[in-house]
Amino acid sequence: MFGFRISPSSAINLDNVSRDRFSELCRIEPDALRCMACGSCSATCPAAEFSGMSVRKVLLYLQRGKEEEAFKIMNNCMLCGKCTMVCPRGINTRHLLLTICRIYEKEDRR
Amino acid sequence: MIYQGKQKIWSDYQKEIPDDHWFYVRSCIRQNFFPGSEKMFMEICRDVLKKDFYETEHHTTCGGIAYHCDTIPQETAMTIVARQFALMTEAGYENYVASCITSFGNYTEILETWHEFPELETRIREMLWKACRKEFKIPKYLAHASDLIYKYRNEIAEKAKFRLVNKETGEPLRVVEHIGCHYSKMFPSKGIGGAEYPYVLAGMIESWGGSVIDYPERRHCCGYGFRQYHVKANRGYSISNTHKKFESMEPYKPDMIITNCPGCPYFLDRWQYVISEMEGKTYGQNGYGIPVFTYEEVAGLVLGYDPWDLGLQLHQVAVEPLLDKIGIEYIPEDKYKGLNRKDILRPGLPANMKCF
Lengths: 110, 356
Description:
The structure holds 2 protein chains of 2 kinds.
Chain A lengths: L19 H9 L11 H5 L3 H4 L3 H9 L3 H8 L7 H5 L6 H17 L1
Chain B lengths: L2 H10 L9 E4 L4 H4 L2 H13 L4 E2 L9 H5 L5 H18 L3 E4 L2 H16 L1 H15 L8 E4 H7 L1 H7 L14 E5 L2 H4 L15 H8 L3 E2 L14 H4 L4 H15 L6 E4 L3 H17 L12 E3 H8 L17 H7 L30
Parallel strand pairs in B: 1-2, 1-3, 3-4, 5-6, 5-7, 7-8
């Protein structure tokens, strides 16, 4: 009608999302809080170029309660472990991803 | 909002504003968008408060829009501004007040640049002399017109016929204040109250009886952003900004919005119509929009001026529900009567937003 459209807002209202699962993740795997979002994991990920896989993004989405988006990109992980080798904070990213699967899947089964 | 904390910030950011003798420069676009505003400013300052305000017909654009749209270099904008200062010097004034927020930001930025790089000021003086044989003095005080209405707010409140209060319930009206980005986001010390929570409009609202709404996107841009709107391909970005702001303020049920920038009232007003056409959503009560005003229009309303003399018929969002709420009388038939009661024709009505 006007030749342009409204893009949905990217604002995140943390009052409307549950952070219980992320808190549990941080309790079991404190490394989740050590990530400084440098992006080394995404830069080395062999799946990133084709699928958008990024550990950094997965953590960011989980922090913001956007679990669906996190799992959409996490399904592309091949668990090759390259991200673990390059992480400057020494985070065992592969283990972290497996823990994420365990916590979030366990919740879904309830 | 923790009010005590904000008061501390506000007390840290106060600036000296002389009481009288100002050289006034108008905005390029406000005359078209909200034509009653600048006229009302001069009328309030000269006739109601009896202050000395001077303006000249030789004043031109400050070049701010072209500068912020990246179509002219800063040196060009500086030479244009130097000429405005020369007009002030010729008229014998030392205090310079701009009606436009972008002009104010432009002047502030240029004065700061000259302060840091005096050789640039010398070059601009040469360029001005070559171009039009004029010389100038740097203004002693630079203010935005809203700074002055802020300074005179209590005098206006004393003379006010109406207050920003719901006449039925006696409750203060819930007012959103929106400050133009170029007012103090560039130089926080140059604005009243700093950059995060400028006090300039909040002070007026409090003095005139309203209550200020604090909402998450309070300091977000109105969506104009020059290149975001002037480049047609970017207009979706412009309206998305405004949409975000309205979505954020909606739960607080604002009665009205007050702004101090030429672009903000225009975009907050007109985009409400566009959002209603695109998404079928309105943000005011009972299918109306939220009326958006300039601070001069609100000052005029509380002082008892006729709403149609203030140019409120040129607003897209209907102002009548708010006028009824405050108890301001108006003649509905006169809404589309111009000078000498000449019929100025009625606009088409929006499909989804209620208007008169």
